[in-house]
Amino acid sequence: MAVKVERIKLGSQGLEVSKLGLGCMGMSAYYGGPKPEPEMISLIHHVIDSGVTFLDTSDVYGPHTNEILLGKALKGGRREKVQIATKFSITHKDGKMEVRGDPAYVRASCEASLKRLEIDCIDLYYIHRIDIRVPIEVTMGELKKLVEEGKIKYIGVSEACASTIRRAHAIHPITAVQNEWSLWSRDLEEEIVPTCRELGIAIVPYSPLGRGFFSTGPKLVESLSEDDMRKKFPRLQAENLESNKLIYERVSEMASRKGCTPSQLALAWVLHQGDDVAPIPGTTKIENFNQNIKALSVKLTPEEMSELESYASGVVKGERHAFMSNTWINSETPPLSSWKAE
């Protein structure tokens, strides 16, 4: 039986999206090499036909090729059925990731994304990372102009601290904040979530399945290609994996009791965080998407939510991201030592 995909208001400015979104990054980059274009277009069509219309990409995915793929997939009247989110600010320089938020770069990035996506207006445009050289008010000022010109509808930020979110929101309303959020990545709950809810900003969790860990557990590592960036992630390293697999085993045991898969249970936990939350799990396979969408039908009681949370509380080994602080140039992204592992 088909799962009904609820629609929600994302933020308080009027954007409406499907409760579950789709992260498109892995189709083109980072999780191994680019996947066959015809297969990815078929997947995107299947996703839209299933009622999931919130599609997430970025100019750095590829770079550029993921936006081009999405543009091709949305031909033939599909553009009108979806809400497209893309991002700017991350570039590569001398083997490091440089972050830019100067007005000229903001405008040039937007224009380039519009061309690659072959659209007239971006539904949700995120600052992917915050450039600490440029006051956030200056970056937001240019984005506000792009809204006024009709090139973007709504503005978002990703991986920003609470004070930056407040300052950005004061210049132009922020519709959504995108952050990693899953059973084992919960550091945003202390400050980011309360700040967003106070200001009427929605939360878009990326990697809600722990980058695939809650789908297949420690076996995930065995299936990764050499060019898959997850091979570098601390939580998937051998010294941490032995401990972290116990979390997966406990989630699996509860999933058996609930009559669902571990990934559906982990995703349901994120979906239950509130009506202002729209997670964007990524996939490159139709069968995996079909499993993910069934998480919308998994109901959890407050007691079950607490039980799930207890499995990973204080026991996660390894930082949540592979990007060390010295990998970035001019980014607000904090050093890993300041991130909580629970």
UniProtKB/TrEMBL annotation:
It comes from the Eukaryota. Keywords: NADP, Oxidoreductase. The keyword Acetylation does not apply. GO terms for molecular function: oxidoreductase activity. One of its GO terms (cellular component) is cytoplasm. Residues 19-310 form the NADP-dependent oxidoreductase domain. It holds the Pfam family Aldo_ket_red. This is Putative aldo-keto reductase 2. It comes from Dorcoceras hygrometricum. The lineage of its organism: Eukaryota, Viridiplantae, Streptophyta, Embryophyta, Tracheophyta.
